[in-house]
Design a protein that fits this description.
Number of helices: 6
Largest sheet: 6 strands, mixed
Radius of gyration: 16 Å
Structural class: alpha/beta
CATH superfamily: Ribonuclease Z/Hydroxyacylglutathione hydrolase-like
Number of strands: 14
CATH topology: Metallo-beta-lactamase, Chain A
Number of domains: 1
Strand content: 25-35%
CATH class: Alpha Beta
Strand order of the largest sheet: 1-2-3-4-5-6
Distance between the termini: 32 Å
Shape: globular
């Protein structure tokens, strides 16, 4: 299994592809530029199987429907943010005079259990703090964690937005993410990748 980072939109939100040798793939957080993303997927020969959301803030959901409809694939999100997709007020876009929304997700996740999509197996970790329904997805095969806006290279997710909780975020990172192998690559919603080992040793918010 391999992964690919694709920054999208004015906030350079990281969309990720997790893909196998045959180029079947799962798409994480298609935040913007849906037409460009679809074109890239076609040109590179990828075959998307699903869209998996780490959370439903507006900068992560802008291209959901364009990509879903193009490939006729399902969308997964935590049940606590099922309404956020449809609501500019909840997903935060209304604060900036925008009206970003997507249709209801096809599958709502609520349990921390393996999620199997085609040949892909993800371990679902509920990691609230940045938002109530934030999910981090661990792929043992890729040695990678798709963590959304929970943990960054040298930083952590902001908690001053509605539903954010600083203590809850720190607990999510320390009791769930930091139990993963230290070699695990952390793939955040913005900025460069890092590792569990690096963040344990040097993240100023966590030491």
């Amino acid at each position: 299994m391999k992964w690919l980072q694709i920054p999208l939109g004015p906030m350079q939100t990281n969309c990720y592809l997790l893909y196998n040798q045959g180029k079947d793939c799962i798409i994480f957080d298609p935040g913007e530029q849906g037409l460009d993303l679809n074109k890239f997927l076609k040109n590179e020969g990828f075959s998307p199987l699903a869209i998996v959301m780490t959370h439903a803030h507006f900068d992560h959901i802008g291209a959901v429907d364009l990509v879903r409809d193009e490939w006729e694939i399902p969308v997964y999100i935590h049940t606590l943010e099922s309404e956020w997709l449809k609501s500019p007020e909840l997903n935060g876009s209304a604060r900036y005079g925008a009206n970003i929304a997507a249709r209801t997700a096809d599958y709502l996740l609520s349990q921390e259990e393996p999620l199997k999509i085609g040949t892909f197996k993800l371990h679902v970790l509920h990691t609230p703090g940045h938002s109530p329904g934030s999910i981090s997805y661990y792929s043992k095969e890729a040695n990678a964690l798709f963590g959304g806006d929970t943990l960054f290279d040298g930083s952590i997710g902001r908690t001053d937005l509605p539903g954010g909780n600083h203590e809850q975020l720190l607990s999510s990172i320390k009791t769930k993410l930091f139990t993963l192998p230290e070699s695990t690559e952390v793939l955040p919603g913005h900025g460069p990748a890092t590792t569990i080992k690096k963040e344990k040793e040097s993240n100023p918010f966590l030491i």
